[in-house]
Amino acid sequence: MFKVDHKTLRLSFNDFHELTEGDIPEYGEYCLLELKTGGYTAGGWHPNNYSDKESTSGKFIRGTADTVDSEEVSRWHSLDRYDLTESLEKEGVNWINIGREEEEGERNIQFEGFKSFADKKRPKEEQFCLLIMNDGSMAAGRWNKWRHQAGGVFIYSSALASHSSDKVWAWTPLSSDEIFAMEVEQENEKKREKKLNKNPVTDPELFKYGTGINTYYEKALEKLRDEFCWATVTMMKKKTPVWQIAPLHGKYVFGQIEKDYYNDSDVVIPWTEGTTADEFIDFLCGYTHDTVKRSDPGEKFKLGTDISVYLEKAFNNVKKDYRWLDKKMLCKTWQYDIQTVDGDLEFVRRYRDEGEYSVYDVESAEQFIEWVEHDYQSLALRENKTVATYAPGFGHISLHGWNLESYVFCKLKSGDYMVSVTAGNRTTGGSRDFFITPYCFEAKTYEEFLDRYLEIVPDYSFGLGKKELLPDKELKKFLGY
Predict the structure, then answer these.
(1) Which of 127, 130, 211, 270 could form a disulfide with 253 if both were Cys (CB 3.0 to 4.6 A apart)?
(2) Handedness of CA 447, 448, 451, 457 (dihedral sign)
(3) Exposure of 368 by Cβ count < 10 A (0-12 exposed, 13-18 middle, 19+ buried)?
(4) CA 393, CA 420: separation in Å to the nearest integer?
């Protein structure tokens, strides 16, 4: 490793260039920048007109949506063209000149105060830093720490291109900017809020029944039971997000708490529709009314509390079309039960050998059976191997911002058929398998078959319709017509 002491190291930059015609960086070259404001930052050069090699119109990219316009730059100094390895391997070196040694005075800019992750030091969040890498090269980037673990990355270009902290030998901050200033203000605001909330005050009109949220849910429950005799607090809290009592700006409020994952903090959204405890209780009644209405255990468990009754019905419904499905296969999918959760009976499920059940929130017996049928259908298709495929040809098809990528008919081992469709956009994509039910094959003609098939896989959703599929003789033959 390098022998230089980073704590005493100074870097002297002596090869600055004015940003003028004929003296601009190479495309993508990463540069230390002196701004017209007197500050220092860095970025990769991207001209506005790539074909004009002389133009100074462009920007230096520091990260995603993070750029410096060329008009803001006074001078630039390449970071890409230098390797400090030879100097860093010598003991006792505390000053390294970068560029032409004869340049001095105002042309010379020095950076010091380098720190190392090896010393358990790290930059402040969103701080833009000059970096010396483990391979002796120089770089720069905006610090983003990893949440809930040590380390982080320096973001330096678009699409979150970054230098990992374990690749950096030493770093020192460059000048503050708007992004860093906003981060500092957010941190200061969090500190002010934390201080205010140490001893929050309580409005006696708003919290005349105390500061326990369940008291207010229970008082709202008394009113709901006039209409729904089966109502419970557990049912009411299925309406999410639930209401809590939390400190905000030094006062207790009724609020909903949302997680701000970017800042790794909780955000309290206060209730603002009234000023008294009784008004909030009336609000809770309205807020949870429809959820409680849909939680009637008489509807949900109309077939009783033996889970096998519901599963048998779902299995028999699926078996009508997915003829190869047998009960031995069912251990390979979700496992279901009826259990008491927080005092209420609930349908619960866990996947195969998972230890914990989770609540399967449905409104009725019919809805539960329908969801189990979906699981059994997916299982049945996974258990029926594909023995032959046919992919009809198609050109560019764009639907609702998604592009059709794949459309494949599959013949299954059982002699049945399905179609697998894949679509995506620039950032994501997805696939779906559709079973072609025996009802479709009861059609006497290929055209009648397509009419039935397109009710399952409609052209307005998946791109191929009767106009494209009817003339396809190979597909007609593949499907047995």
Answers:
(1) 270
(2) negative
(3) buried
(4) 14
Q: Which residues pair with 244 in a beta bridge?
A: 255
What pLDDT, on a 0 to 100 scale, did the predictor assign at position 426? Answer: 64
Q: Residue 474: in which H helix or E strand, if any? A: helix 473-478
DSSP secondary structure string for all residues of 73-127: EEEEEESTT-B-HHHHTSTT--EEEES-TT--GGG-EEE---B-GGGT--PPTT-
- Give the whole-angstrom CA distance, residue 318 versus residue 337: 19
User: Looking at residue 101, what is its pLDDT?
Assistant: 58
Low-confidence ranges of the chain (pLDDT < 70): 100-107, 261-263, 426-427
pLDDT of residue 380: 96
For every residue of 284-300, DSSP letters joined together read HHHHHHHHHHTT-HHHH
Report helix, strand or coil for 71.
Answer: helix
Residue 10's beta-bridge partner residues? 95
Question: Could you tell me the two tokens for 104?
Answer: 């001095």
What does the pLDDT read at residue 338?
A: 95
DSSP 3-state of 275: coil
Q: Could you give the C-alpha distances from 39 to 35, 36, 329, in angstroms and in order?
A: 5, 7, 67
CB-count exposure of residue 275 (10 Å: 0-12, 13-18, 19+)? exposed
Length of the chain: 481
Give the residue carrying structure tokens 């291109």: 161
> What phi-psi label fits residue 216: left (phi over 0), alpha (psi between -120 and 50 degrees) or beta?
alpha
Alpha-carbon gap, residue 13 to 77, rounded angstroms? 8
CA distances from 43 to 27, 32, 277, 325 (A): 11, 7, 55, 60
Q: Give me the pLDDT at residue 266, please.
A: 83
368: three-class secondary structure by DSSP: helix
Q: Note the pLDDT of residue 103.
A: 47
| Residue 411 near residue 387 (C-beta atoms within 8 A) | yes
The residues near 227 (Cβ < 8 Å, ≥ 6 apart) are none
Residue 443, pLDDT score: 94
Structure tokens at 428: 């994501």
Report how far residue 266's alpha carbon sits from residue 270's, in angstroms, rounded to the nearest whole number: 13
What count of other Cβ atoms lies within 10 Å of the Cβ of residue 285? 20
Distance CA 73, CA 266 (A): 39
Q: Quote the pLDDT of residue 23.
A: 85
Q: Are strands 95-98 and 10-13 parallel, antiparallel or unpaired?
A: parallel
